Amino acid sequence: FLIFKAKAQSLKLAPFFLSVVLYFALVRKDPQGELWTTVLKCLPIVALMLYVVIKGFALNKHYRRSQLILLGLVFSCGGDALLNVNLFPFGMVSFGVAHLFYIGAFGWQPLKWILGLCIYVPVVICKYIYFSYLKIVVFVAKYLDEILIIGVPIYCVLISTMLWRALARAVDAKSFLTIFCAVGAALFVISDALIAVTMFLSVALPGARLQIMITYYIAQFAIALSTADDGPTPKCKKQK
């Protein structure tokens, strides 16, 4: 039964894997805002949206997590498109909204506030450094408009909260899907950190686009896959 279920999930995820291969095969260099690269970049996320719907979906309370993650994927797709056409501030806003939906999907129980504190302390320190040196580090400030000066710290809080809630859920449930989802959340943070390093600090990372997109696609894959067990509780489990 488990093997059959795994095969069924693989078939539903086939469009995602094919679109990822297509993206890396055809987009060989950093995109310059072309329509075709934007479409190819968004295709894997659209495929994950399709997966969330076809694996089992309904507009009721039993599929609340699937609904929220689907909305998160929609705004992530919008963020991908906006970033690809060089509208970074608006792309960041779109991803920020996506993280709000992911946070809602992961929930606030159990709270695990110590875990959250361990994540927020480094973020607060980075924000302090960010604002302290903003007037001094001219080469950073000149790349930031007013939206980014305010938006970057807010976005950092949102993605950190998303990571916190994913980790708290994994620690509590200890299932493959929740643990893999937490790994995905961590990879999302890493992917965004790589963008920040290359964009704001002008660090020339080897294969930067590959590093950013590989970690990003795995992150979104893990988050979408976490909806595989979403739905009504089986009667056998209720009886237990």
UniProtKB/TrEMBL annotation:
The record lists the catalysed reaction(s) as: a 1-O-(1Z-alkenyl)-sn-glycero-3-phosphoethanolamine + H2O = a 2,3-saturated aldehyde + sn-glycero-3-phosphoethanolamine; a 1-O-(1Z-alkenyl)-sn-glycero-3-phosphocholine + H2O = a 2,3-saturated aldehyde + sn-glycerol 3-phosphocholine
Q: Does the keyword Protease apply?
A: no
Q: Which PANTHER family match?
A: GH04784P (PTHR31885)
Q: Name the InterPro entries for this protein.
A: TMEM86B-like (IPR012506)
Q: Name one GO molecular function term.
A: alkenylglycerophosphocholine hydrolase activity
Compartments annotated for it: namely: Membrane
A family per Pfam: YhhN
UniProt protein name: lysoplasmalogenase
Report whether Transmembrane shows up as a keyword of the record: yes
E.C. no = 3.3.2.2
Q: Where are the transmembrane segments?
A: 12-29, 35-54, 66-83, 113-131, 143-164, 176-204
Keyword annotations for this protein, in alphabetical order, are:
Membrane, Transmembrane, Transmembrane helix
One cellular component (GO) term of this entry: membrane
Q: Membrane topology for this entry?
A: Multi-pass membrane protein
